Amino acid sequence: MINSHYIPQFILRHFLNNEKIQYCDLKNKKIEIRNTKSVFSEKGYYPEYLELELCRHVESQFANLLNNKFAVSKYRFTLSADEMFILKKYLIITVLRYRSSGLEKDQVLLHMSDHERDIILGDFYDNICKILQCSKREDAFKYISFGAKDSNIQLFAYVKDIFNSYTVAVKTNNCKEDFIIPDSGWAGYSGPIRIKKFNAVFDLAIKTNDPILFQIAQLITPHDYSVFPITRNMAIINMSAFFKLCTKGSPYNIIFPEEAPNISSALGFGSSEIIEPPRTKPIGRMKNEYTIEIKQLSTQDVCFLNSLLFSNCNNYFAFSDISKIQNTIEYMKGSTIDLSFLNNQ
After folding, report:
1. 3 state SS of 115
2. Are 20 and 232 in contact (CB under 8 A)?
């Protein structure tokens, strides 16, 4: 039986320190020094055919991007349309490939029929396979078409959120605080303006008859952003299209509500500069090239994003060097997640 990794080893290698990773069992308050073969894995987690399909249809392509573009770039990197698709495809697979025990124990879902659960969640393996078989954006978009027979609410939501969002790249070199990597591989955020941002854009679009605002209104969901750590000091953040309206180059004057009076309070981190969208350059018929500036985060920013990653951790998480997450541990004091055992080793 194959030992399947739900966090790929090519990601974990970017969290190594002296060829080892710090692997933590949150439930049992235990930390161990491990190699990448023995963490975030389980024998028989995926059928053998699916393990091969993951490697063939997404992991090998994304590993090439990670090693040759993302991890080695200091200030910016440029993606072709095909490379951007690989990135988005990998992010969706990351969201789908971990089976959360929380869903299996959800009391509402437990009282539903198999058919009702299938409408909401679909089949775990089947959802992964559907995205793996997508070779272009249009293939994925069929799962967000209303009335699609082979879609489900979970698949609909994740495809819509990730493909309709824009890409931000962030690093932590300046502040020296590392990201952690949870067993889920990612975390999402829907903050104080999650609903208001849709209503505001839609109302303004009607008042002004602005086609750009109508287009953005169609892309907005309660999702604000998702964060995906890809190395110990780099993450990809998928931002809701709404926040394009809030950056410095935007012609729109967005007024935030009292409960979140600026970008930082709405998102929990960052600034209008950090969340700038990629520069898009047409390079041919129906093709674009995307240049993404890598933004540096503050210690406070990383601590907040790490707190989201901890909140989406089911049982295990890992990091490279405990000295590089000390500010996060301090930030998490008083939260429902007890990390005090990390300093008792």
Report:
1. helix
2. no
Quick one: what percent of the chain has pLDDT higher than 90?
A: 85
Cβ-contact 103, 121 below 8 angstroms: yes
How crowded is residue 187: how many other Cβ atoms within 10 Å of its Cβ? 21
**Stretch 303-319: mean pLDDT, rounded?**
97
Residues 6+ apart with CB under 8 A from 43: 1, 2, 3, 4
Write down the number of H helices and E strands in the chain.
15, 13
Written as one string, the DSSP assignment of 205-248 is HHHHT-HHHHHHHHH--S--EEEEEEETTEEEEEE-GGGGGGST
| pLDDT reported for residue 345 | 60
Mean pLDDT of 266-294: 93
Query: What's the rounded mean pLDDT across residues 220-235?
Result: 97
Nearest-angstrom CA–CA distance, 264 and 197? 15
Cα separation, 116 vs 239, whole angstroms = 31
Give pTM, 2 decimals. 0.96
Tokens 């879902």 locate to 109
CB 266 within 8 A of CB 191: yes
